[in-house]
Backbone:
C-alpha cells in the first residue's frame, strides 16, 4: 500500500538503505562515512513508504552527520521532508563536544499546542456553538495582518514578556495563577536574553502578540470522543466522554521566524570559523560551547517564551468568549489548562547514553517531549502519571492526548510524534477540493467552521493529512507514549 | 495552479508541506522581480494590490542564493512590520564586485485592507531548502526556492 498519489517533490539524491527491526522500527545503517550514528525510523509499512517518496530519510541520514550526535538520528511516525532536518525528528548532541543547530528547531520556534478542559458537556453548548465560534473568531485575531487593537505592548514590554513568559500576562490579569504550572518549562524558559534578538525580530513580534496566524495553525472546540486510560485521564482533568475541550495550536509568529533566520546566518559563518562540514546549508550549526551557540540559545529562549505568551493570550480570550456567550462564571465553566507543549524546541537535558548520564542538546523539530512518571520536569500533580502529550490531528478529524513513557527515555530522548503530517501538497489539495466544499462537508458532519481564508480551508483539508489515529497508534505500540484519550472537533477556527 | 496570468514569470511546483516556487527571467534582476511577485501571490492576489506606494530597497550578500534569500526576507519583513502588500518590483543597479553581490530595487504596493485584498496564506519564512539560482545561458535565468508557511 502506498499513499503516493501526486508528483510530489523530487526523490532523494540517493537511495537510502533500510533495515527492518520490527513492524514499527527501521534502521538507516551508517552507509556514509560521515554518519556518526545510524538513523532510527518509527513507522509502519505505509508511513515508511510515504517517507520514501520525498527526502525524509535522506535528511535523517544527514542529521546523523552532525558532530557529537548520540545514539541515532530519529524520525517519528509523522516524519516528512523539512529544511535540513526532517519534520517529526529528534537529534541529541553532546553539550560540549556536540553542536546546536537552529535548523533542528525550525523557523516556528515553540510552535506548540495548548489544551483546556471545561466542566461542560456537548449538550451544554450545542445550541450556542455557532455563537461561541463567532465570538472566539472575533476575539482571537487570525489570518493576514490581524491583531488585537487593545493589546498594545511597548518595546520594553516585549523584552520583559520574552524573559518572564506566561506570568507576564497572568500578572496583568490575562490568565490564572495556576496556568504556568501546566506549561512545559512552566511557561518560562530560563536564559532568555532579549539583547541577543535582532530589532527586526522584535519589530515583527511587536504587532503579532496574541494572534493565531494562518496555515496549519488552528483553534478547535472539541469533545472527548473516548477515554482509553481512565486513571491518567482523570488526573489530567479529562473525566467523561462528551466533555468539552479547547485546543490551541500556534507558535512564536514573526518573532521566532526571524530569530531562526538571523541565527542561520550566524551559524553559516560559524561553520566556516570552526571548520565544521555539514551536508546541507540548513544544518548550519555551532559548537555547544561557542559564543554563537550561547547567543542562539538565549535568543531561542526568548522566542519560546513569546510563543507561550501568545498561546496564553489566546487562551484568555477563549475563556472570555465562553463567559460572554454562556453567561457563566469561570468556576462553573472550568476551562482549566491541561497542558501546553512545545513542538519545535532545543533543550539542555540529561539522558542515559551507553550507561552514562550525559548532558545533551535535544533538538525536537516537530516532536513532543514525552517524559515518564516520576520525572522532575513533569508538573507535580501529574508526576505519578507522566507528562501529557498532545497531538493535534488535521482540521476536522481527531486529536490525541497521550502520556509520556519510560521507553521514550530509552529510545527517543524522551520524545514522540507531534501531529498528523501532510500527505498531499497544498496545490494538490486545492486541485482536489475547494474551501466552500470543505466547509459544507465539515458542517454536514456537525462541525462549525470559521476561517479567515477559504483557500486555507482547501489546503488544510483533512484528506491532505495522514491519519493521526495511525500516528498515535505507532507511538503507543512502540511504547514511546501511551494513548489516554481521543478528542474530536465540534468547531474549527482557522487563520 | 495560478493560471496563465503568470506564465513565463513564475510557477508553483509540487511540495508536500510548503510552497515551492520556480521563477524565470531574461536577467537575474527580472528573475528576482518575479520571485518577489510569487512571494506575494502566495499571500494574496497581487492583481488586486494597487502599486500606489513606492519604497526603495537595497540588498547585498556573498552569494546569489544568499542574495535571493535576503531579498525575499526584506520584503517579507517589510510587509509584516508595515502592514504592506507589494505587487510591482523593479530591480536596478545590479553590482557584482569581488565575490559580493548587491542591487537596489524599487517596490510598489499598498497597505493591506481585509475588505479589498484576498487573504491566502501567511508566509513564515524564506528557506535555503532546494534553493537554486541557475543562469547558465544568457537570457535564461531560473530560480527555485521554498517558502515555509
Residues:
Amino acid at each position: 500500500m502506498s499513499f503516493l498519489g501526486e508528483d510530489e517533490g523530487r526523490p532523494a539524491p540517493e537511495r537510502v538503505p533500510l533495515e527492518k527491526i520490527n513492524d514499527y522500527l527501521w534502521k538507516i545503517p551508517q552507509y556514509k562515512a560521515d554518519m556518526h550514528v545510524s538513523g532510527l525510523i518509527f513507522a509502519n509499512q505505509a508511513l515508511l513508504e510515504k517517507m520514501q517518496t520525498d527526502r525524509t530519510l535522506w535528511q535523517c541520514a544527514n542529521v546523523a552527520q552532525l558532530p557529537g550526535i548520540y545514539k541515532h538520528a530519529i524520525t517519528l511516525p509523522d516524519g516528512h521532508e523539512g529544511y535540513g532536518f526532517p519534520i517529526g525528528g529528534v537529534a541529541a548532541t553532546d553539550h560540549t563536544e556536540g553542536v546546536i543547530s537552529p535548523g533542528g528547531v525550525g523557523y516556528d520556534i515553540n510552535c506548540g499546542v495548548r489544551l483546556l478542559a471545561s466542566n461542560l458537556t456537548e449538550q451544554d453548548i450545542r445550541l450556542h456553538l455557532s455563537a461561541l465560534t463567532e465570538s472566539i473568531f472575533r476575539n482571537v485575531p487570525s489570518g493576514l495582518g490581524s491583531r488585537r487593537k487593545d493589546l498594545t505592548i511597548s518595546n520594553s514590554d516585549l523584552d520583559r514578556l520574552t524573559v518572564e513568559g506566561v506570568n507576564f500576562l497572568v500578572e496583568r490579569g490575562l490568565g490564572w495563577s495556576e496556568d504556568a504550572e501546566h506549561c512545559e518549562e512552566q511557561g518560562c524558559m530560563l536564559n532568555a536574553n532579549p539583547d541577543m534578538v535582532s530589532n527586526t525580530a522584535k519589530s515583527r513580534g511587536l504587532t503579532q502578540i496574541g494572534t493565531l496566524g494562518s496555515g496549519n495553525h488552528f483553534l478547535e472546540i472539541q469533545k472527548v470522543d473516548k477515554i482509553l486510560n481512565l486513571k491518567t485521564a482523570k488526573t489530567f482533568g479529562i473525566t467523561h466522554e462528551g466533555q468539552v475541550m479547547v485546543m490551541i495550536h500556534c507558535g512564536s509568529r514573526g518573532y521566532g521566524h526571524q530569530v531562526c533566520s538571523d541565527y542561520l546566518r550566524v551559524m553559516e559563518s560559524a561553520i566556516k570559523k570552526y571548520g565544521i562540514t555539514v551536508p546541507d546549508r540548513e544544518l548550519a550549526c555551532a559548537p555547544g560551547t561557542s559564543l554563537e551557540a550561547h547567543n542562539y540559545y538565549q535568543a531561542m529562549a526568548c522566542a519560546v517564551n513569546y510563543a507561550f505568551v501568545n498561546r496564553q493570550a489566546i487562551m484568555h480570550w477563549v475563556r472570555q468568549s465562553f463567559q460572554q456567550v454562556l453567561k457563566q462564571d469561570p468556576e462553573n465553566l472550568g476551562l482549566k489548562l491541561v497542558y501546553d507543549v512545545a513542538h519545535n524546541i532545543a533543550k539542555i537535558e540529561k539522558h542515559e547514553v551507553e550507561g552514562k548520564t550525559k548532558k545533551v542538546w535535544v533538538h525536537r523539530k516537530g516532536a513532543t517531549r514525552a517524559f515518564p512518571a516520576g520525572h522532575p520536569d513533569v508538573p507535580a500533580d501529574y508526576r505519578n502519571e507522566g507528562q501529557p502529550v498532545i497531538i493535534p490531528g488535521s482540521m476536522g478529524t481527531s486529536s490525541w492526548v497521550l502520556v509520556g513513557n519510560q521507553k521514550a527515555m530509552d529510545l527517543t530522548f524522551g520524545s514522540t510524534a507531534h501531529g498528523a503530517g501532510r500527505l498531499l501538497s497544498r496545490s494538490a489539495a486545492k486541485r482536489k477540493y475547494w474551501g466552500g466544499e470543505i466547509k459544507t462537508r465539515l458542517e454536514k458532519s456537525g462541525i462549525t467552521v470559521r476561517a479567515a481564508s477559504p483557500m486555507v480551508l482547501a489546503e488544510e483539508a483533512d484528506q491532505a493529512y495522514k491519519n493521526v489515529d495511525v500516528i498515535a497508534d505507532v507511538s503507543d505500540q512502540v511504547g514511546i507514549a501511551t494513548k489516554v484519550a481521543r478528542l474530536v472537533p465540534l468547531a474549527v477556527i482557522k487563520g | 495552479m495560478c493560471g496563465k496570468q503568470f506564465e513565463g514569470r513564475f510557477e508553483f511546483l509540487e511540495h508536500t508541506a510548503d510552497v515551492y516556487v520556480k521563477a524565470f527571467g531574461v536577467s537575474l534582476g527580472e528573475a528576482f522581480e518575479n520571485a518577489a511577485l510569487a512571494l506575494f501571490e502566495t499571500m494574496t492576489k497581487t492583481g488586486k494590490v494597487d502599486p500606489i506606494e513606492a519604497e526603495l530597497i537595497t540588498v547585498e550578500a556573498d552569494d546569489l542564493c544568499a542574495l535571493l534569500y535576503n531579498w525575499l526576507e526584506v520584503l517579507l519583513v517589510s510587509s509584516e512590520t508595515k502592514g504592506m502588500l507589494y505587487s510591482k518590483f523593479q530591480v536596478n543597479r545590479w553590482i557584482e564586485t569581488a565575490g559580493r553581490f548587491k542591487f537596489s530595487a524599487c517596490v510598489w504596493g499598498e497597505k493591506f485592507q481585509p475588505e479589498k485584498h484576498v487573504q491566502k496564506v501567511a508566509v513564515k519564512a524564506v528557506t535555503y531548502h532546494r534553493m537554486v539560482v541557475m543562469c547558465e545561458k544568457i537570457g535564461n535565468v531560473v530560480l527555485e526556492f521554498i517558502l515555509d508557511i
User: Anything to note?
Assistant: Confidence is low (pLDDT under 50) at residues 1-9 of chain A. Chain A touches chain B through 49 residues (CB under 8 Å). The longest strand of chain A covers residues 481-494. The two ends of chain A are 34 Å apart (CA to CA).
